[in-house]
Here is the input.
Amino acid sequence: MIYLMSDVHGQGDAFFTLLDKVRFSGDDRLVIVGDLIAKGRDSLSLLRFVMQHENILLLKGNHEARLLYACGALEKALEPREVIRSWMDGEGAQLLRELRHISIAEYGAILQYLLAAPVTKELKAFGTSWFCVHGAPKGVREESLLTGRYKDLQENNHCPGKTAVVGHTPTFRYGEAYRGKIIRLPDKILLDCGAGHGGPLGCLRLDDEACFYSECT
Here is the structure.
């Protein structure tokens, strides 16, 4: 089975609840479409878990890019520096503190893992192509791919012949009817159910497009 989720945001209980719900095993694949970290208390433990599982692929999100810049692993900030400074003092502060207390070897391994994390991933299965990226796939610049948003659900998906699979924008921003839910449209799938905002974490199984949810935090 192939599973998709995004914007876990350090919510370990929700993440492992979902893995239990879908009975995730070594025969399955999981693609996390960015923002595994920050906001929640379990960012470091989730990074450790994902790094240990070859059948889990983490795509880079804007929060991973913020961490890399804050740690000096990226020369160029992909968002305004004042945004990253605020993140370092707020949503990213706990993770940054924890990273100061791990070994140099593990610290380097985490940064190398996040640097190597792809920005996009195309999946081809069941006669369909899915283009996975954290933000709306507008253009080719990394900052656009990590922070882009669809202005509304009718906007062109910018992926001709493919279904776009994105996170980054909580689905409630497209209307209260979508709060806490994965949005599935013919040309796009929006995965961010708002776990970073007190909502549930969502997971989509591609094989049959079944949706699974954790409880709200």
Q: What stands out?
A: The mean pLDDT is 95. Residues 104-116 form the longest helix (13 residues). The chain has seven helices and ten strands.
